[in-house]
Every structure is written in structure tokens, then in C-alpha cells.
Target: Pre-mRNA-splicing factor SYF2
Amino acid sequence: MAEANAIQETDSKVVKEDSPENPSTATTKTTTSTSSTDAKSALAARMARFKSLQAAKESGRKATEREVRLAEDSSARQAQLSKLSAANEKASYKLLKADDPDFERKRNWDYTVEESENWDKRMAKKARNRDGNAFADYRAEANKVYKTQIGRLGSVDLEAYAAQKGERLQRQVQSGLLQLVETEDGDVFTVDKDGRINTPVEEGYSHDHKPTKEAIDKIVDDLDKGEAARRKARAARGMKDEDAGDVTYINQKNKQFNDKLSRFYNKYTSEIRENFERGTAI
Model:
């Protein structure tokens, strides 16, 4: 009987510990469930953000591809339209010229005498340049290069040049090299001892001139263009650009002659040349 009462009391204790009325067990289960819910919601938020970023990346890639295709199609269409327009103008010109024998004379009615004379001068200059394109001598070649370089000076800053000239004139007036003259009308100008007006006096170079960065870049660009033209001309003539080794020639014909001499006589003069290079020749 005593053993039966002990077993009953033990079962009642177990039931009380496992019953939901135990506050510590209920709190633990609630905390665990809350933590699990927070982790799931955070993971879901991160996944939603990741998917939104992926969608934005994909839409940006598609938009970029679409813009690139549109740009390529637009450039191709513009080139095709310009080609068709040029062909249309040429065909219209030929048709009008074939229908009317006086088409050229009537078309010139739209131009003034000055415009016609300027056009004739321009065409004559182009014909002279085309006829004189062949190599004559080195002086003519240098003159042609000089005229080409002068023609590129259309972008000179005239305002900066006038300001620099004014500063030089003012400095020379202060130093006594030029005389400042004022007329009755109020005009002011400078005069040198030779009677030249507003002309700076030639001075010795003082080595204090510092060119601007734009001027240096312009000279470097011009030198690079000249070097590229030289390499292109040499490549067109089928010649290799031999920068390595000693230069023993003054032009291409002289180089060919030296190569021919080397081909025939190098085997006889190799010892003499080696002695000269070592400095042991007698």
C-alpha cells in the first residue's frame, strides 16, 4: 500500500512538471519559437532583396543591350541614307544635264561674279597642287611642307597674340627702345628709330620664354603626325623602318648602293673593319 502511494505521488510530480501550467517551460518554448520566427523573416527579407538586385541587374543589362543595338542601327541607317541621298543627287544632276544642254550655264546664274572668281581660283589651286604633288627636289618638298603647316595655323588665338604684342610694346617703350607718339586726334602708337609703327624692336633672346602647355602639345602632335606620315609612306613603298643599327646612308638610293657594296666586298674587308672598330688598325 505504501509502495502504491509512492508511485502515485511520483506520477503526479511528473505530470505537474510536464503540464503547460509550468511557467519556465512555457517561457522557453515561447522564446525558441520567437527566435525561429525572427530568423526566418530576416532570411526572407534578405532573399527578397537579393532577388530585387538580380532583377535590377538583369533589367539594366537588357536596357544597355537595347541602347547599343539602337545606336548601331541608327548609325547604319544614317550611313545608308547619306549614301542614298548622294546617289539621288548625282542621278538628278545627270538627268538635268542630259535634258538641258545649257544646264551648267543656267546653274551659274545663281552665283555672283566674286563667288565664281573665288571658285575658279580654288579649282586652279587644287589643280596646281595635284600636278605638283610629285617629288621634284628637297627644296620644293620643304616648301610644300611649310605651306601645309602654315595652312594649319587657322586656329591661332589672335587675341592672345595681340595681348602679348601689346605687353612687349609697353615694355620696350618703358625701356626706351620705342617712342610713344600721340596724334592730334588722340591716336597713340609707337615708333622705332627706323620709323616703323607699332612694330616691336628685335631683341636678344633672354632664354626666359616659357611656352604654354597648349603650344607644346600642338608641336608634339604635329611631330607625331609627320612621323606617322613618314612611316605610312615607307610602308607604301614596301620599305621596312630600320631604326636599329648605324645609319650609313643619306637616302634610299645611297642605302641600296651601300648594300650592294656590302654584298660583294664584306668578305674581303671584314678584318679591316673589325680592326677599325677595335682601334688596332695601322
Residues 249-282 form one domain. DSSP finds eight helices and two strands in the chain.
